[in-house]
Design brief:
This protein is about 60% helix and about 5% strand. With about 160 residues, it is mainly α.
């Protein structure tokens, strides 16, 4: 049986071996054919699919979104509109995250400034940054939980 072993697939696609196994376990990547010894063997089709999945994850699409995109890729009756709508919704989410990160950066800049002007190397318990966080004088921007956690070993 011809095919590529999991380590070679990982190297070729820039995906870790545990992530490949995870994608198989959740059905995002088809289960690989097996040698008599039980080692997985992957085809050129698997390389293409995993590369596509990896690229989607590089754009921070969730696993659920990647699943939809993979299904669209396989379905000749699907339309580009569905992929476009998914990308547009993801863009809104990315812009929301950017706003949250800018607010977080402003809060951190303020902490650093306050420390530079008021603290100047005091002992830890007297640190203005720690005191402000302990007293809740500044509120951190709300953290949004991801709907689906990233695959293990994701780079």
């Amino acid at each position: 049986m011809q095919g590529m072993k999991i380590g070679a697939l990982a190297a070729r696609t820039g995906t870790s071996v545990p992530t490949i196994r995870y994608y198989e376990a959740i059905g995002l990547l088809q289960r690989a054919a097996r040698q008599e010894s039980g080692q997985r063997l992957y085809s050129s089709e698997d390389i293409g699919r995993l590369t596509f999945i990896r690229r989607c994850r590089d754009f921070d699409f969730s696993i659920a979104q990647v699943r939809v995109l993979v299904d669209l890729l396989r379905d000749p009756s699907s339309t580009c509109t569905t992929a476009r709508d998914l990308a547009a919704a993801h863009l809104v989410s990315v812009r929301d995250k950017m706003r949250e990160l800018r607010a977080l950066a402003r809060s951190l800049e303020s902490f650093v400034h306050d420390c530079d002007t008021a603290c100047g190397g005091r002992s830890g318990p007297d640190c203005t940054v720690l005191g402000q966080m302990r007293r809740g004088e500044r509120t951190a921007p709300p953290r949004r939980a991801r709907s689906i956690a990233a695959a293990p070993g994701r780079a």
